[in-house]
Amino acid sequence: MKRLLNLLLPLIGVLFALIVWWAASTMVTDLPSPMRTWEESKIYILKPLEKRGEMDQGIALLAFYSLMRVARGFLLGIAIATPLGFLLGMSKTLTRIFDPIMQVLRPISPLAWLPLGLIIFQKSEPAALFAIAVCSMWPTVINTMAGVRAIPQDYWNVAKVLRLSPVTTFAKVVVPATLPYMFTGFRLSLGIAWLVIVASEMLTGTPGVGGFLWQEYNSLIYAHILLAILTIGVVGFVLDRLMGLAEARLRAL
Amino acid sequence: MAFIEVTGVAKTFVTSGGSSREVLSDVSLSVERGEFVSILGTMGCGKSTLLKIVAGLIAPDAGRVTIDGEVVRGVRPSAAIVFQNYSLLPWFSALENVRLAVGAAFPDWPRDRQRQQAVQHLESVGLGHAVDRRPGQLSGGMRQRVAIARAFAIEPELLFLDEPFGALDALTRDSLQQELARLCSVAGRPITTLMITNSVEEALLLSDRILPMTAGPRATLGAAVAVELAKPRSASELLHDDHAAGVRACVIATLTEDLARSRSVTRRGLQQAGSVRLTDAPAVKPTLAAEGEG
């Protein structure tokens, strides 16, 4: 019974959303109904790996391109953010030096970073990675920093009493103690990276879910916009769940 | 000069609110090589702070600590500390926790030997079957056994015990006290031990000398009381021993005296530290002794 409810209740929510969507489509002329969206985009979903043109590809392929871009930008971001978080966490002086810069850089939108990336790198791909990395790194910086600060005095005492070298202290005490916080940061960072990808693909016109969305808008095929939006949502949801699972496993250790 | 010399140590903590609290003022003590000395006091009297200063975990505001003639700056390589809250790393197994200490103490040893040392010391505290368990999967008593194994595995010449059994139930505490006494006696070399405790019986069971500490703030040490009983001792034996009763009475009298009087005793006591005769101990009714233990 409980299982049935677990399945049924979310379905009711989906159904409700579809009804709202359908109702809205009867009032707004250009907005395709759920049925029309399905009719016009089923080829992308039923043949998800088919490549018909640069932008005209199966939805799985498009999502794959976007994911690869996100992965690279995200990895670049956390590769900078994690060491930075450790440094700031361990040094109050460094925090005081960099805090104002961080607070100013943090709220800047990806749409603002992208043109700067294009100026610096002259190409759309590195510019997109730059925007993703710069936007997604902050939660990891802040969480790692908080994690280091939250290490109980007991653990520092252990390091002192055992006379562990700085390297050993870092590897065996600081990193394991901070890991759960770091992963929360990674999860939030990945969420932001996925938000940024769409914007950067739209502006640079590169193949991917965001690029596809923008092209179909320009081609007036509105059903495909809805397809792209749903894809972005579903992929983002799956990513978050995967990171959540990894995080939960880590915390269980 | 004694092995551990503490002279005129003072420590004041400043709270984030700006107010300051003088925890220790003008504390002096000395411990001979191989001696087991307990500092006995009520909770929050500053004895734990004193231990951390002697061990080199925190620096005193005034006074100085020397061990083997050297001024203490940081934890010495030959020192091990056992804390009340075990202080094990939860992400490592019992074995890895001990091996981490062994690896840091004997970096030149091959990995096999380090591992063997760790296993051997875990076996000596009866945890041979639980080496792969993490602290979270162990009971409080077992965790403290791991912490004790970790302390002995580095073959220390100095042992600092910060209320090592304070968090354990009475039965577990009894067996671990015996275990600790046994480990000290079989170590094959003199281990100088400074223990912090709030239990008179624990101090009686293990120590050569007991230093009562007056209640903080501005805590100082009372006159030292020697425990001249052969080791190992057993708790039941101590219950009916006249000498033990004398020590108990003397220690509790010091702790329950008013602050002003205990101060003057301190000054007199320090000049003749270690030589206070138990016959000088004020007579205290047994009922008072029982209350003082609680």
Q: How would you sum up this structure, described in words?
A:
The complex is a heterodimer of chains A (253) and B (294). Helix content of chain A is 84%, strand content 0%. By secondary structure, chain A is mostly helical. Chain A has one domain (58-252): MetI-like (MetI-like fold). The longest helix of chain A is centred in the C-terminal third of the chain and has 39 residues, at 166-204. By secondary structure, chain B is α/β, with parallel strands linked by helices. Chain B has helices at 47-55, 94-105, 111-124, 140-153, 170-186, 200-206, 235-240, 242-256, 259-271, 286-293, and strands spanning 4-14, 20-31, 36-40, 62-67, 70-71, 79-82, 158-162, 192-197, 209-212, 225-226. Residues 265-294 of chain B have low confidence and may be disordered. Classes of the chains: A mainly alpha (253), B alpha/beta (294). The A-B interface holds A 154-155, 157-158, 160-165, 168, 172-173, 176-177, 253 and B 55, 57, 74-75, 77, 79-81, 83, 85, 87-89, 91-92, 100-101, 103-105, 154.
Number of discrete helical segments of chain B: 10
Q: Which structural class should the secondary elements of chain B be placed in?
A: alpha/beta
Secondary structure tally, helices of chain A: 10
Round the Cα radius of gyration of chain B to an integer and report it: 19 Å
- How does the overall form of chain B come out from the CA principal axes? globular
Per CATH, the architecture of chain A is Orthogonal Bundle
Q: What is the overall shape of chain A? A: globular
Mean pLDDT of chain B: 82
Largest sheet of chain A: none
What layout of secondary structure does this protein have?
The complex is a heterodimer of chains A (253) and B (294).
Chain A: H1 2-27, H2 34-46, H3 59-90, H4 92-105, H5 110-121, H6 124-149, H7 153-161, H8 166-204, H9 209-218, H10 222-252
Chain B: E1 4-14, E2 20-31, E3 36-40, H1 47-55, E4 62-67, E5 70-71, E6 79-82, H2 94-105, H3 111-124, H4 140-153, E7 158-162, H5 170-186, E8 192-197, H6 200-206, E9 209-212, E10 225-226, H7 235-240, H8 242-256, H9 259-271, H10 286-293
Parallel strand pairs in B: 3-8, 3-9, 6-7, 7-8
Antiparallel strand pairs in B: 1-2, 1-4, 4-5, 9-10
Helix pairs in contact in B: 2-3, 2-4, 3-4, 4-5, 8-10
